[in-house]
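B., you asked whether I could sanity-check this one before it goes into the benchmark set. Here's the sequence:
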Amino acid sequence: MATKKNLDYFAELYVAGIMADNGWNIYFPHRDCGMDFIVSKTGIDGIEIIRPVQVKGKYPEKSKKGKNAYGYAGRLNQIHGQMVLAIAYFDSIGSQIPLHIAFMPWSAIKPHSRGFRCEPAMFKNGKAIPRRDYRKYFGTSGLNLVESKSWK
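And here's what the prediction gave me:
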């Protein structure tokens, strides 16, 4: 039986694998006290890019209703201006591959009564769908933005 902790760890490893496949070096901490891992990559200009990453997996229940804004709302144990909040959207608890991964900058994370919120997708017809204004943060285009000098 999949537990919430196992699902979150699976999402972390999946996102780390995607980033590694795209040339990022991945560094896992000895203890998980906030950031799930740190990534680095040499940029086009030869300058090393370093980003802390937190991953949140979204596994909707079959009873989940449609929502205009769908993503993460809750505590972030650590925050950083150059961090990446990677939200992996699965179609259900038993999914092996996420439908989408959003690579969100700190500027897209807002204060919320439960801590912080970042909702770059909508939930419609049982699936997460990138919202128009946030599409650039999904998939390869979102991962490419993580490399940009203006990331924040």
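One thing to flag: The domain at 4-146 is CATH 3.40.1350.10 (Trna Endonuclease; Chain: A, domain 1). Otherwise nothing jumped out at me.
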